[in-house]
Amino acid sequence: MKVRNLMLSLAFIATGCHGFAATKGDKHMRGEVKLDGSSTVFPIAEAAAEEFQKLYPRVRVTVGLSGTGGGMKKFGSGDIDIATASRKMKPAETKRIQEAKIEYTELPLASDGISVVVNPSNTWATQLTMAQLKQIWQPGSSIKTWKDINPAWPQEKIKLYGPGPDSGTFDFFTEHVMGTARLSRSDYVASEDDNVMVTGVSKDRFAMAYLGYAYYEENKKLMNVVALAKDKDAVIPSPKTIEDGTYPLARPLVVYVNNKSAQQKPEVKLFVTFLMQNVGALAKEVGYIPLKDAVYTETLRKFEAATGGPTQQSH
User: Fold this and answer.
1) What is the largest CA-CA distance in the chain?
2) pLDDT tens across 63-98, in order?
3) What number does CATH give the domain 115-248?
4) How far are the Cα atoms of 209, 221, 250, 288 from residue 158, in angstroms, in the given order?
5) What pTM, to 2 d.p., does this model score?
6) What span, in angstroms and rounded, lies between the C-alpha atoms of 142 and 233?
7) Number of alpha helices (DSSP H) and beta strands (DSSP E) in the chain
8) What is the DSSP string of 127-166?
9) For the residues 211-229, what does the mean pLDDT come to?
10) According to the model, what pLDDT value does residue 192 have?
11) d(C-alpha 273, C-alpha 7), whole Å
12) CA-CA distance, 189 to 197, in Å (whole number)?
């Protein structure tokens, strides 16, 4: 996603037109907030970091991009304050983090729909069934050309792009398409950077990829989205179909906050408060589907209860 271009629209938020809440704290506060993890959550986290640093220029907020799995490893090692994730924490990750005696709070940010995309000149693959998607991506797949999927389609090799194994998108996609997480063919171009997939699909008429909805929305002139059919009619991802769950690959986006970091570092607690007060507007601006306001209010209450009460603010 072109995050820098995105910040032009985020400047509009800062005027208050989208209910942007300028959380008040010590303008001279110093410190560092470290986030790492999901490439899907990255646009929200990066936008929040930039807006927060306009208010608190002496606080350094770093946002890493090592994939959900990579972020969880760093979170479990105590290397970061916040892990960003495009899926729920796995049992093995929970166990490792608990063994490290790290207490945390899970905070929902928004909803997303993993989008299957093709080149704009692809006029044949307008929709796929979930069964066909499984045939394409299963280990040892016999699908090599478009004609292998449908006899009426071109006998041209499919160039596949997708997230790498550290990605939460990879985990969620394989679990919901294959029925087993991390089960996938390996002969595809794998990357933790969604822009690699955008570029690959936009330049190859016979390419296919899957990525977060915000990356499709930001680059829709460079690719077509494929409608997916699970039981009956094929459905394309949109704010409505993702929110109501009719799109087959709708999923949650979350962050995990180290409670000790929030308790001992006021800049971390203030950043999380700022994030949760503004994430609805930020999510919408970057192309994801915001949750209900009541969810954010309850989430912030839960976070404050876990970390010693409301953020202390000064004017």
Assistant:
1) 68
2) 999 999 999 999 999 999 999 999 999 999 999 999
3) 3.40.190.10
4) 10, 21, 25, 28
5) 0.83
6) 26
7) 12, 13
8) EEEHHHHHHHHSTT----BGGGT-TTS---B-EEEEE-TT
9) 96
10) 86
11) 20
12) 8
d(CA 170, CA 250): 14
pLDDT digits (tens, 9 = 90+) for 223-267: 999 999 998 899 999 999 999 999 999 999 999 999 999 999 999
Helices (H), 220-292: 239-243, 259-264, 266-286
Question: Could you give the CA distance from residue 190 to residue 185 in angstroms, rounded to a whole number?
Answer: 11
Write the DSSP string, 102-134: --EEEEEEEEEE-EEEE-TT--S-SEEEHHHHH
Q: State both tokens at 133.
A: 């998607």
| Amino acid at residue number 272 | V
What is the domain partition of the chain in residue ranges?
3-111+253-306, 115-248
Alpha-carbon torsion angle 143, 145, 146, 147, nearest 10: -90
CA gap 208, 172 in Å, rounded: 18
Distance (Å) of CA 262 to CA 292, 294, 315: 25, 23, 21
* Structure token digits, residue 249: 């690959």
The 10 Å Cβ neighbour count of residue 100 is 11
Q: How long a stretch of residues is the chain?
A: 315
138/127 Cα distance (integer angstroms): 18
Distance of CA 146 to the CA centre of its chain: 29
Tokens 């389609």 belong to residue: 153
How far apart CA 210 and CA 116 sit, in angstroms, is 4
Considering only CA atoms, which of 17, 14, 26 is closest in space to residue 58?
A: 26
Q: How far is CA 15 from each of CA 18, 175, 288, rounded to the nearest angstrom?
A: 8, 41, 21
Measured in whole angstroms, how far is the alpha carbon of residue 287 from the centre of its chain?
11
Fold matches, 3-111+253-306 and 115-248? yes
State the CATH architecture for 3-111+253-306: 3-Layer(aba) Sandwich (3.40)
